[in-house]
Amino acid sequence: MVKERGRKVIAQNRKARHDWAVLDTYETGIVLTGTEVKSLRQGKAQLVDGFATVDDGEVWLRNVHIPEYTEGTWTNHEPRRSRKLLLHKHEIIRLIGKIKESGLSLIPMTLYFSDGKAKVELALARGKKAHDKRQDLAKRDADREMQKAIGRARKGMR
């Protein structure tokens, strides 16, 4: 039996970096049923509206869509069910403190397989205001123009 190595990305939340200022990230395990794993191996999942909450000392991933497995039977899973995330107790306690004190949120950034195990990259993030988003876009455009100018100067163009 050949064991998988490396990291195979299933889904990414690309819009998250636009809408949220990421302060810290955590790699977490995720509790899944058999048909969810099979559906993920087909590369199907959506993290767009997902978020995580801490309830009774446990972290739960909510509103993440993993479609039903096409070959599944009556044992198929519910696509948007809450899924438990696996973190160490001291990490959960630290997260509870940060979320309560400063109004931060937990946002799933990436869903992937690492050495055959499903993992979620969870970000501790603060929501951006509209003017922050505009500043980020303006900075990105300015950086792009600067890189173009440097590239032209290297080639001897003006």
The best one-word shape is globular
- What is the number of helices? 4
Strand residue percentage: 25-35%
N/C terminus separation: 59 Å
Give the name of the CATH architecture of the largest domain: Beta Barrel
Series of H and E elements? EHEHEEEHEEH
CATH superfamily of the largest domain: Small protein B
Radius of gyration: 19 Å
Q: Which blocks of ≥5 consecutive residues have pLDDT under 50?
A: none
Mean pLDDT across all amino acids? 83
State the domain count. Answer: 2
- Within the CATH hierarchy, at the fold level, what is the topology of the largest domain? Small Protein B, Chain: A
Total strands? 7
Counting helices, strands and paired strands, the structural category is alpha+beta
Give the strand line-up of the largest sheet: 1-6-7-2-5-4-3
Write the layout of secondary structure elements.
Blueprint: E1 7-12, H1 16-19, E2 20-30, H2 34-41, E3 51-55, E4 58-62, E5 83-86, H3 89-102, E6 105-114, E7 117-127, H4 130-154
Antiparallel strand pairs: 1-6, 2-5, 2-7, 3-4, 4-5, 6-7
Description:
The protein has 158 residues and is α+β, with helices and mostly antiparallel strands. The protein folds into two domains: 7-127, Small Protein B, Chain: A (Beta Barrel); 129-158. The protein contains four helices and seven strands. The chain has a seven-stranded antiparallel beta sheet. The radius of gyration is 19 Å and the shape is globular. 22% of the residues are buried.
Quick overview of this protein structure:
This protein is of the alpha+beta class and 158 residues long. 32% of the residues lie in helices and 33% in strands.
